[in-house]
Amino acid sequence: MATPTSAQQWTADANEALTLSLVRAPEDKASLWAREAYEGFHPTFTYPIFGEEEKIYGYKDLSIELKFASGSLAEFLNIKYSEKLPSSSTVDDIEGTLSKFIPPGYYTDEQKFLERVEEDAINFKPYGQKIYSYTRSATTLIKGKNVAIPQVLSPEDQETVDFEVYHSTWQTPGFREFHRRMQLFVLLYIEGGSYISESEDSWEFVVLYEKRRRRSSPDITTYHFVGYATLYPFYCFPESVRLRISQFLILPPYQQDGHGSALYTAIYQHVLASPSIAELTVEDPAEAFEDLRDRNDLKMLLANEKFMREGFGPEAVSSNGGKVAHGRTKRGKARTMRVGAGKMGPPAERGWLEKWRTDLKIAGRQFNRLVEMLILKHMDPTDERAQRSYRLQVKERLYRFNYEILMQLDKQDRQQKLEETFQSVVADYRRILGHVL
């Protein structure tokens, strides 16, 4: 086994050295089930803080504990190590570096921090206006990418956990200070994430909290931070706005439980309920978020009975999730959707699509993709005319979207590239549909 060099002995991986915890008061910890763990998780990225290589130099056995009160996000910082090199320009100043990214007033005395956690557990309440809520049973939470949000549970059940989403702006009393503690998670979990400017007054925020009753005192409820999203409105002619999701994150202890879908649904419902908002858009979405958005938008369309009936004809039944009612003809053959039975075609009727897109406040490219997925789902694979119309519809959109790149190629290469892109898109549609149906 190779012996580590002197430099390696004094170098730590910042992602491993930094440990995060959402700390609850003792009585709140006593209300948790064994599967629930909110302390001792690590960041995905630390390069915005410690540099591109994500290394910290000058310490042996380095451990950086950054703890947050689970609701108010009051912070405690503790740096431990067995040895440190003599101070020099090459030894990293860990606290000095971190203090540039977290607001002043963080604790370094753990006892005082725990007293603050106890105090905040009772006194902390979410900022802003509640816009959405849902419930879960703590005893049956199951992790998975496509977890469905259960129906409302009995509030009298002590093991019912509530989740609430609140909308805030910079003008919401107390929120600006809360955001300064909250924003660190953007650097640690969103690749390429950066802090937003407090001088830009238009920012809006939606924050998701867990609301938990104490087993020992069911009349006491406490709030715990789960995740949040930042939103920015842009002018939309003639007198409305497009609301863009800029940052979106759910903290690791709450991931794979469907909370991302719930937060996205809260934002979408807020958009639908706001007459001044014309549509919801997303800024440069990561692949995981794009999948989350596709799944939730598809489920919403499949559950819209009027949209499905108009789009695919009377055989599109929304009561079973928008699925086609497959029956049997007198000859015993399976019955599939008839081409032209509804506005979806293919090809889809553009005027009808634009009316629905406007009513549902979905951005153009996203709505076209969703329509293409739904047509693919319902189309008879043996209908050559429908297959050809579908292929032309998708390729026309792809051609327009990639026009500048495609025009740099000669005609044969352009046609080949367009076909390859079409096949790739259809394969991805089938993958997404497989997660929804």
TrEMBL record:
Write out the residues that bind acetyl-CoA.
Answer: 248-250, 255-261, 295
Q: Where are the residues of the annotated region Interaction with histone H4 N-terminus?
A: 52-54, 232-234
Which reaction(s) are listed as its catalytic activity? L-lysyl-[protein] + acetyl-CoA = N(6)-acetyl-L-lysyl-[protein] + CoA + H(+)
Q: Where is the Histone acetyl transferase HAT1 N-terminal domain?
A: 10-191
**Biological processes annotated in GO:** subtelomeric heterochromatin formation
PANTHER family named among the record's database cross-references: HISTONE ACETYLTRANSFERASE TYPE B CATALYTIC SUBUNIT
Q: Which family does it belong to?
A: Belongs to the HAT1 family.
* Name by which UniProt lists this protein: Histone acetyltransferase type B catalytic subunit
Species, as recorded: Trametes coccinea (strain BRFM310) (Pycnoporus coccineus)
What taxonomic ancestry is recorded? Eukaryota, Fungi, Dikarya, Basidiomycota, Agaricomycotina
